[in-house]
Amino acid sequence: MKPLRILVDSFADRDLTNAQMTNGRDIIRRLDAKRFHVTVFCLGDPDPAVAARANTRLITLPRRRQSLRIFREFLWGQHKILFYLKSSPAAAWYLNVRSAWNDGRVVVGTVESQSDLRNEPTIAPEAVRLWERTVLRSDALFSNSQWVRESLQREYGLTSRVVPTGVDTRFFCPAAERSNLRPRVLFVGSLRPFKGPQVVLEAAARFPGADFVIAGDGPMASELRDKVQTRQLANVSLRGVLPPGQIQRLYQEADLFLFPSQWEGSPRVILEAAACGLPVIARDRYHVETVVDGQTGYLVQSDEQLFQRLEQLLASPDLRRSMGEQGRRHIQQFDWDRIAGQWEEIFLQLAASGRRGTAE
To answer: How many CB atoms are located within 10 Å of the residue 65 CB?
Structure first.
């Protein structure tokens, strides 16, 4: 039996930290090379695990006209499934011509955030329109949580199946011991208003006996630096964007994970933090399934409740330890090995059914 040929519309570069790119690499490296041939794009140095995988074709894109090269692969590439379709010009061109092309391939799109993008001011209207013209026109749609699935149905009337985001529980694992003299609180994420890094600074001002580490970059970076200096928040450290190995160490060195984001799907960083044995405080607004309220951390309704729960955890090393251990056990069900196995079965089903068999 010949391997099923899959084109992954993602970049396999080792240094790209975008969540979708990272998820794509994690899935690719785990697909059975005997059953699946994978083609994926690359801008620079590829992820070593992807490059070393058998039955893998890396397409290095040129400096110019990258969309044309991707479009050409969509049209003439020898693949049965186009997976992880991005919101891009190449995807829009392909979807516009494929009915006439009649190639019979199955296009698979993933939705990894809630679907009311029009209500988020940091997302440009043209970006929303491109997303609607590409990902939402896929033959088969998959959401990464039940909340995201319900949001897609509510906003667009589209059905999808749920396949969770995964985490590498061997790489993201607890440290042998934590020896901080003061509790250390970690935030990892894009520095945008809806992610809540400004709430982390407010927490640092309220709890000067703890240290707060913020890893990430974004439109609010300079504003946050100014506030740290103006408010003389000596207990705040801004680390910027870091490679996976350094992010792993931040998790292992922290005592708890604070994620005040208001608008999400199923955040990858929560899985990583829990896999490293950290209790997590997050919002209850997007019904995150990777936190069990009161057992592996807390889901809060307001900033004030967030500060109350933070105070509880800062005051009790035993509670942090207990919740962190439960979180580590809970997150094992989201290990990438399990999730990649789900994708393998889905790919085989889609290949067998074809485009006309993808509707629920």
So the answer is: 11
> Per-residue pLDDT tens for 308-359?
999 999 999 999 999 999 999 999 999 999 999 999 999 999 999 876 556 4
Nearest to 6 by CA among 31, 39, 29: 39
The domains found in the chain, sorted by start residue, are 4-166+336-357 (3.40.50.2000), 184-333 (3.40.50.2000)
pLDDT single digits (tens) 225-267: 999 999 999 999 999 999 889 999 999 999 999 999 998 888 9
Cβ 281 vs Cβ 257: under 8 Å: yes
3-state secondary structure of 360: coil
Is the confidence at residue 302, as pLDDT, over 60? yes
Residue type, 266: S
Global pTM value: 0.93
Q: Is 256 helix (H, G, I), strand (E, B) or coil?
A: strand
**What is d(CA 308, CA 299) in angstroms, rounded to the nearest whole number?**
12
Structure tokens at 282: 């997050």
In this structure, how many other beta carbons lie within 10 angstroms of the beta carbon of residue 263? 20
pLDDT at 89 over 60: yes
Would you say 111 and 264 are in contact if contact means Cβ atoms under 8 Å apart?
A: no
Count of other CB atoms within 10 angstroms of residue 342: 16
C-alpha 114/C-alpha 264 separation (Å) is: 6
3-state class of 3 per DSSP? Answer: coil
* Interatomic CA distance for residues 83 and 5, integer angstroms: 11
Runs of H (alpha helix) within the chain = 19-28, 48-52, 66-76, 89-101, 125-133, 146-156, 197-206, 221-230, 244-253, 268-275, 303-315, 317-331, 336-353
Question: CB burial class (10 A; 0-12, 13-18, 19+) of residue 189?
Answer: buried
309: enclosing H helix or E strand: helix 303-315
